[in-house]
Specification:
This protein is of the alpha+beta class and 554 residues long. The protein contains 14 helices and 26 strands. It has a seven-stranded antiparallel sheet. Strands 19, 20, 21, 24, 25 and 26 form a six-stranded antiparallel sheet that branches. Strands 1-2-3-4-5 form a five-stranded mixed sheet.
Length: 554
């Protein structure tokens, strides 16, 4: 990837900002740069989208961190941009926001709801990598040269003096010309991520004799030793046989040529790559069914409703695509017409955010789908339409440990119960851990009125007087108990807090571990922390409610 020396460019802010401006104009065909000499009024760079939305881009040359002074500059730019009532406003600056900077940026939306994206260092480097000529301009030429390139680009776009109406008129004329040449095709153009113009020709209606068809001829080849080429070859074969999509580069094509209606001039086009896409047939209504994991005896262990929404076809058969009702599990059913076989494949992608109850059914199925068991697919309303096959490989993600799917299914089931019993509903926290899962289970036990054993082998008590420390020191043998009660026990999970009410904790100790150190600290600072060992056979416990009389004595 091209690494742009933003720190060096920042020595000349106009050079850095001009590079970003030219990059956006390369990426966005409608973007317009304003000549800043006459005052830009808050619109250095803007764009009116196809939908008529106004997007304002703010380019800054800052590097390092977004300090207070730089934040004020950004906020002043926002005030200026707000006068134009934009639909979106994007900040383009070669700084990847840290958490504090991201919170500040997100907070801008409270006053300026049109604030949209912070495009930082990584994003700019990625886009510049596809346009190395722009980086060469910035590194080898003067700032004036860059400004001249922007002026040229602006002049080319300003030829549409009538604005959108001119653009619509020219597009209409071009489309009319293409329809005259080939009435069986519609055309539209777009820019891809590399800033190249892409022409889309779409078949319009039937062509029984094939006279207006667009044909591709040539030989397809793959380099056998290259792993990427091997994957591409398998993808190509799969697409040809059962439908799908595959992209071939120029290296995969030999003697490639296009042909079609004479007026289109396809024969003069050098084929640099081909994307093969099978026709997609939408299933309306969707084809619904039920998948189930079973023992060899037929006893069901887990099941999940699925819905197939579309199909693609190839020379050997077809592929049905769908998902479960939550969208967490993708399902693919491939049927081979040559040998009358079928293959059912699943892919699971944990979501960024989901309610715990939506995760449980999928995780239960994953946990039970192990080699040696059977998978059955039954279509709704058709009792005779059933497919069954042995499970050949585990369905859990490769990074998961054995039994982890069952662990998370139980954990999210417990979290669902906790939310239902406390009437506090929220998605699974991003950093939900196995320790959190254990604590949720403990809280459920507390709500059931049970005592929960606290983990740990010691307890620390703050002491602020010699008298208290002496009383503890007088304990020479045996055990002693400390009971602590609070009116409000707060259970914290991620950003959420649940008040469980009055809570009591009981600690039974049999030894003080740091008496001499505590005495020194009390003398020197009038405060000490006493560390006591919890009795081995009397673990510390917690329960909800006030102190129970039965636990008043050892």
């Amino acid at each position: 990837m091209v690494r742009v020396p933003w720190e060096k460019l920042a020595e000349n802010p106009s050079l850095s900002e001009s590079l970003v401006t030219l990059l956006v104009m390369r990426l966005r065909e409608r973007a317009q740069a304003v000549d800043g000499a006459g005052g830009d009024g808050g619109r250095d760079l803007f764009e009116y989208t196809d939908d008529g939305e106004l997007i304002v881009y703010e380019a800054k040359s800052f590097t390092g961190r977004m300090g207070a002074g730089r934040r004020r500059q950004v906020e002043r730019s926002l005030v200026s941009a707000a006068r134009h009532q934009p639909d979106h406003w994007d900040l383009l600056v070669p700084i990847d926001a840290n958490p504090a900077e991201q919170r500040w940026f997100d907070g801008l939306r409270q006053e300026f709801p049109f604030v949209r994206w912070w495009r930082g260092h990584s994003w700019l480097d990625e886009k510049c990598a596809a346009h190395p000529d722009l980086v060469r301009y910035a590194l080898q030429e003067s700032a004036d040269y860059i400004l001249e390139r922007i002026a040229e680009a602006r002049a080319e776009r300003d030829l549409l003096a009538g604005g959108i109406s001119d653009y619509v008129e020219r597009a209409r004329a071009l489309h009319t010309r293409v329809r005259e040449i080939s009435p069986h095709h519609a055309v539209h153009t777009s820019l891809n991520a590399d800033g190249r113009t892409v022409v889309h020709l779409t078949s319009q209606g039937p062509d029984p004799d094939g006279q207006n068809a667009i044909r591709f001829t040539g030989r397809v080849r793959f380099v056998g030793e290259d792993p990427q080429e091997t994957r591409r070859r398998l993808r190509f074969e799969e697409t040809m046989r059962f439908g799908g999509e595959v992209e071939l580069s120029a290296d995969n094509l030999a003697e490639a040529a296009l042909s079609g209606p004479a007026g289109l001039g396809l024969e003069r086009i050098a084929v640099g790559g081909v994307r093969i896409t099978s026709p997609r047939q939408e299933l309306t209504p969707p084809l619904r069914g039920q998948i189930a994991v079973q023992l060899s005896s037929g006893v069901p262990l887990a099941s999940l409703p699925v819905s197939f929404t579309h199909r693609v076809s190839g020379m050997d058969g077809e592929t049905l695509h769908g998902s479960d009702m939550t969208g967490l599990m993708r399902v693919r059913l491939r049927s081979n017409q040559r040998d009358l076989s079928a293959q059912l494949k699943f892919s699971f992608q944990p979501p960024e955010a989901a309610m715990p109850q939506t995760m449980v059914p999928v995780l239960r199925l994953l946990s039970q789908a192990t080699p040696g068991r059977f998978m059955e697919l039954a279509f709704a309303g058709e009792p005779a339409s059933r497919m069954q096959a042995p499970i050949s490989t585990t369905m859990t993600p490769q990074s998961w440990e054995p039994g982890e799917a069952q662990l998370w299914a139980d954990a999210f089931d417990d979290l669902t119960q906790l939310q239902s019993r406390t009437n506090r509903f929220f998605p699974v926290p991003d950093d939900f851990t196995k320790r959190d899962a254990r604590e949720v289970k403990d809280v459920l036990s507390l709500l059931d009125g049970e005592e929960v054993v606290l983990r740990g082998s010691t307890v620390s008590v703050d002491v602020g007087s010699t008298e208290t420390l002496t009383q503890l020191g007088d304990i020479r043998a045996g055990m002693f108990r400390v009971t602590a009660s609070g009116k409000s026990f707060i259970f914290t999970l991620g950003d959420h807090q649940i008040d469980l009410g009055t809570c009591t904790e009981i600690y039974t100790m049999d030894k003080i571990l740091n008496m001499q150190e505590a005495r020194r600290d009390l003398t020197a600072r009038r405060h000490a922390t006493v560390v006591m060992r919890i009795a081995e056979h009397f673990p510390a416990v917690r329960y909800l409610g006030p102190e129970r009389t039965s636990n008043a004595a050892v």
